[in-house]
Fold each of these.
Amino acid sequence: MSLMTVAEVAEYLGVQELRVERLERESLLISKDKNSEGKPLFDRTDVEKYKEFAERIGGI
């Protein structure tokens, strides 16, 4: 399992970091762990699946 930071997910999805944090808060993107600062870390596979799903339904 490869973990991604909020910044990495934001870059991958092409959105702002605040949007990624909101997706996590709303349980649309589930974090797998927290870093030393308490920020969520996401499984790369989950992020890729989310992006694919979001694109199918009209965008992120």
Amino acid sequence: MAEHEDWTAGDDAQLRRAMATLRHDVEAVPLPDVRFVRARGRARRRHRFLGLTAAAAAAAVVAGTVGYAAWGPSSSRTPLTPASSARTAATTPSSTTSTTMAASSLDQPGALPLVGEWASSLELTGSVLLTPVKPFGPVECLQSEPGTKVQQEEITRAPEVQGGQVRFRIGSGQDAATAADGVASDIAGCRLAPGYKVTPASSGTGERVYSYTAGDAGSGWWAVVAGKHDVVVLQVNQNDRPKSGFTLAQVQELVSIAQKRLARYGTGTKATASTTSSPTFTGPKAVDEQMPVVGPSPVPSWKLFVAASQWRSQPLSSGAATSAGPGAMEGSTAVASCETDQEQAGIGGRVGVVSVRVGSSSTGYVGKQRVQLDDSSGADVQQSYVDARLAEAKALFGKGCSTGNGTVKSTPGPTAGTWRLDTVAPDGSPIFSEWVGVTAQKTPGAVSTIVVTKLADPKQGFAELDRLIMLARQK
């Protein structure tokens, strides 16, 4: 092609200015890979209610104030429940069971519904976990908070149900019903991302219920409940479901329990419940098993670790027995990719690791658990220690890294504080995957990091990780 003879320096400058403007516009609103949008959207849909991150919603061009729950939590996972049975459990009427549960459980103090009441109302099967969120986080969709947040909890049932509840104490001289109307208005007009649609489902004295759909990010329900001096916001998320399997009647049953609890234990009542509580569990219970703990002396007690025998499952070990091996740490307390010995050496407190394997071969290891413990006498110091470890894990595992073995890509799990780390080697070797979860434990000052490195069914990696985390939280 012949070269144009009439192209001038002025023409060149004009084209450069046009291209620079286009570049600025494109960078201002990037178009992300659809796999990224879907993956992040699903994960954030699961996590937003309890506020750990302020992040974009499922579409990368829409920003909003959202959150991610403290890890001590969501949420509890169990081996993956078949979708068909989950739908049956969610849609089969059992009003008698729900009513009986509510009547017998209302004598247990608490201004918010208890774990059994959630399970009964929504007919949840399998293991259900209700965990306090500390420190409190923002609630998505709310433009402003109606009062002082005094209680926040996360509910989780594997594989796809996650939600939460938060209670606001309304200030003196303010009307709780009016404050609840403001919250309901925020929720009704909420647009977290393109495709996020909120639909009014019912309203009555002191309560409003809304359903929502969010495309690939799932579906669920919102409810706002007003007491005498409190406003409660309930949220139920079913991730990856375009339409919720829960019915309006089931959500209204939960709302009814919330109303009764506010009337009995809410702000200003004689039986006002404490705003702090310990994690509550249904499903598998953690057991004690004496195991070798490796680490600098003195190591944390073996009682703080998940029993090696409880790692055994069909998805993880093909049903084969699991046991604690001697480990091959050679003094290292780093248990997952992106961690370094130097970094771990700078962390105070006690630390120990238990390695779990199938059989007795050195190639049979399926994972590890590390416990970090601040056994100081001060509760505030212990809580600060736990918070620091959780924040470090989020910063470390949440973004991936580059190591001498290759590039580590991080994918967030469906539960707060869980990730899959995929190490991609430059020489084309098979990808090495680790499922990593970090959680606070029942023992003050204790934090667990669980790493699963080998599974019979890798598709169940997050479900198995969540099952082990649920057991660790009970320690």
Amino acid sequence: MVSRDTRETALLVALAVVGFVVASALDAPDAVAWGILVAVGGVAPLVRDEWRRRQDV
């Protein structure tokens, strides 16, 4: 069985990829498209995990 954290991380990564593709299709600047990819797919899961870790203390 896949853990809740893994499912949520996969969802955020999938949303990041979709956001990247949409931003690229709309001719957004490359910095915006990459910013969406990094923020939603990389930073958001880290922030969520850290927030949960601090809630457990």
Amino acid sequence: MRTTRLIAGTVTAGLLGLAPITIAAPSQAADTWTTSTVATPSVAQVEYGDDLYISVDLSSSDGYSPGGSEGTVTLFAMEAGSSAWVPVATAENTYASFYDVKPQMNTQYKVVYSGFTSTTNYQDNYTPSESAPFTVGVARKITRPSSGFVIKGKVTPSYAKKKIVIKVSKKEKKGYKTWKTIKTDKRGKYKVRLPRRGGTWYWSFTVKGDAKYLANGFGWRTWVS
């Protein structure tokens, strides 16, 4: 019994001599927020050779946009006939939109935000996101003169030896009937002479659309007193 009491006393003395241990408070971790990307084109369709801009609204679940250098915003395109998304432009910062976008044919677009992972505890993390895809239609371009009975010009692009339908009416808004169908040459050029009919006549020139391009056309007026 005496030995047991001595051991107990020694252990108690040792515990009383321990120095207090200081436990550091954990550092605050960066928050992670989900993001949402919305992309809106300035127009739904353009004529070949024209451009448009695409505005981008990037937001996150914290109620703010990621900082200008916190990730990248990239515009992707998929042209008619393709099944692959291709990056075509990267914005200067996460607040920027895309200007001077010039589709070469009917094209789908989407905008992708890369997300951002902080390497410090002073910035937040943001998840990747992408906008819903949208399509911008492209109509072929038709050149023509400014006046006269001889109508000539060119249809671009890719309109060699294809039809132009010409209709005529005595009324500007209705009553059009097919007058003639002509074809372009191998360079997409066309030429036709309209008849000098008495009175005022209204004419329409139309090229058909296809999988890559929208239909397009223009109106014309002739008059003989």
